[in-house]
Amino acid sequence: MAYQHNHGAVGSQVHAHKADIFCRDETRVDWHSKALWTLREKRDRAAGSIPEWEQLRQLGSDIKLHTLTNLAQYLEIFEQNCLANGIKVHWARDGAEHNRIVHDILSSHKVKKLVKSKSMLTEECHLNPYLEQRGIEVIDTDLGERIIQLAKMPPSHIVVPAIHMKKEEVGDLFHEKLGTKAGASDPLYLTRAARAHLRQQFLSADAAMTGVNMAIADKGAVVVCTNEGNADMGANLPKLQLHSMGIDKVVPDVDSAAVLLRTLARNATGQPVTTYSAFYRGPQPEGEMHIIIVDNGRTEMLKDKILAESLKCIRCGGCLNTCPVYRRSGGYSYNYTIPGPIGIAVGAKLDDTNSIAWACTLCGSCTYICPTKVPLDKIIFHHRRLKAEAGQLPYGKNGYMPLVGKFMASPTMLNCSMSMARTALRILPGSLLKPFSGAWGKYRELPVAPNSSFEAWFKQHRSL
Amino acid sequence: MKIALFIPCLVNQMMPDVAIATLELLEKLGHQVILPEGQTCCGQPMTNSGCFDAARSTTLKLLNAFKGVECDAIVCPAASCLVAAKENFHEFDSSPEAQAVIDKLYELTEFLHDIAPIPVFRKPFAHKISLQLSCHGIRMLSLATPSEQMGPRFNKVEAVLAKIAGIEILYPDRRDECCGFGGTFAVDEGAVSAKMGKDKAQAHAATGAKYVVGFDPSCLLHLDGMIRRQQLPIEIRHIAQVLNAAL
């Protein structure tokens, strides 16, 4: 099948093409799909253990909608309270400004090594290469993040970024980079090796940086959730700590954060809560704490009533785990830093292949999974409409869709050609039909054609 | 009751047996059934591709086929098409006449559960069946509680079928995971669609059931193609065909 690139940049390929390559290794697809489905099953058990689960989802949605509706006000309250707590607050319009601010802070402190933990925002801003080009060593300290950093790959999932790698592959990587025994793939052994390696990094770092799960307006504090304690090890060792957050991360108060904390880990991995949920509300003695608040397209998204709801997301990754397409096409097929349903929701506009909005069957599972009720299927559907209105359709749809519309609207045309098609399906041998049956017949048997349409049958058997 | 049939183009052209079974079972239940002329596509392939302009004309033609038709209910044996018709009618026509049509639209299972339940089945259907809980039926029409949702559960499809003597209702592993049809997705994203279909077909076959039974013909047609390609020992049946055989 030939794919139409409307605005295809060099190197970008449509989702279907990348997915097709991923699907060629079926054993791997099955393994990938099962690993993620296991997380979905754990989530179901954890959610099912809370009698008020559906009320919590509604509450989570209400809290986020309320905050987004009054966003300017809450961001100002947050800033004032941060300043009162001795925290320095910076505002960044986009990724470039964010990176400049971070670099300015680091270089004014002559930072050579930065330990970093869990931040999809810094991935979104491409911070690591920016700092590395300017001579600052960046060490990602979450185990998964460190694995993909050593492998020089972007994350393939927002919570479990190295989910696409098998333990044997991690063993080979650690052997090469960290000097573990050749052929060793025991997870406990590899984790211990990573721990020893990271401990050295923590002790020798000049500054630490984390993402933010929630920013609490009335306290001027940020919440950082990890399972490994690495964010806290980082933030508590060097005297300089930085936290980057999108404007969508703010919530009114601690009670609001507590609601989201009850659903976040349960929906992500089936844990009741993350092992470490740290609240940072000021610098260490003689230290400095900076918070960088980033827009990077979020205000623009807020202007569209449907797209705005994607900013309710708390990045649990539950929608990726349940998505039947993500599980079978992998995190690298989406042409955006964030894959899966939420990646389409926040990334489709930037997708120069114009195809990720169609990497979805609109099954709606993600919408029912979401702990803040982001209407993901509705948002993806809406993106398709926006793309169509801008004339940016994939897979040749610009050309054939108007024709299909005309064809379907004409009962005569439809009846005549379908009757011909049914005849062809009945009398022609399969081998002759195959070249004409395209992507349908490549994977499936063609339908067994009936003799007549129901309409014709009805006229014969029921008409007076 | 007087019932107007809404037979989507796919059923009319490719699965007339499903429409015949729907007609026969409604007649056996004592309803008067008519087939309004001039029905076209509900516009779903176009709107799901984002192409609302291309959908307008066919959607309005379908709507016009039902406007002013005297009936108590409009019944459709295809959940996905029904959902699309409801949404697209609403999208392109805000008149009271359009609303009157929308208010009468029912998917077959929904109709037999909520509006006119089947009092008694006369014949047994002594087979194991594996239920295909298609996405739009459960997540947009609320035919059953989706697996993602917590709390009290219901299942209208099982409730309607369970009254048949001898029937044994089973479910595939990952019971309501999408089968991968998804309209034009089936050809745009052929590899993923086929893998989803293969997994779903195998999960149905693994139950040991004789039939995969569902309420959405498009998903069934896709599964049928996957089942026959893999030569799995299971066949597709629409719920109307099972109900009709037991009446």
Characterization of the model:
The complex is a heterodimer of chains A (464) and B (247). Chain A is α/β, with parallel strands linked by helices and 464 residues long. Chain A folds into 3 domains: 15-42 and 317-389, no CATH class; 50-299, NagB/RpiA/CoA transferase-like (Rossmann fold, 3-Layer(aba) Sandwich); 413-461, no CATH class. Chain A is 53% helix and 10% strand. Chain A contains 24 helices and 10 strands. Chain A has helices at residues 15-23, 26-48, 53-69, 71-84, 95-108, 120-124, 127-133, 143-150, 167-178, 187-204, 230-236, 254-269, 298-302, 305-308, 318-322, 324-329, 340-347, 365-369, 376-389, 397-409, 411-427, 430-433, 438-443, 454-461, and strands at residues 88-92, 113-117, 137-140, 207-210, 214-216, 221-226, 240-246, 250-251, 276-280, 288-294. Chain A has a 6-stranded parallel β-sheet with strand order 1-10-7-4-2-3, sandwiched between helices. In chain A, strand 5 and strand 6 (221-226) form a beta hairpin. In chain A, helix 2 crosses helix 12, helix 3 packs across helix 12 and helix 17 (340-347) runs parallel beside helix 19. Chain A is globular and about 90 Å long. Helix content of chain B is 50%, strand content 12%. The radius of gyration of chain B is 18 Å and the shape is globular. In chain B, the strands form 2 sheets. A 4-stranded parallel β-sheet of chain B has the order 2-1-3-4, with helices on both faces. A 4-stranded parallel β-sheet of chain B has the order 6-5-7-8. Chain B has 2 domains: 2-115, Rossmann fold (3-Layer(aba) Sandwich), CATH 3.40.50; 128-245, Rossmann fold (3-Layer(aba) Sandwich). Chain B has 247 residues and is α/β, with parallel strands linked by helices. In chain B, helix 2 packs across helix 13 and helix 4 crosses helix 5 (79-92). In chain B, strand 7 (211-214), helix 12 and strand 8 (235-238) form a beta-alpha-beta unit. The mean pLDDT of chain B is 97. Chain B has 13 helices and 8 strands. At the A-B interface, helix 1, helix 2, helix 16, helix 18 and helix 19 of A face helix 1, helix 2, helix 3, helix 4 and helix 8 of B.
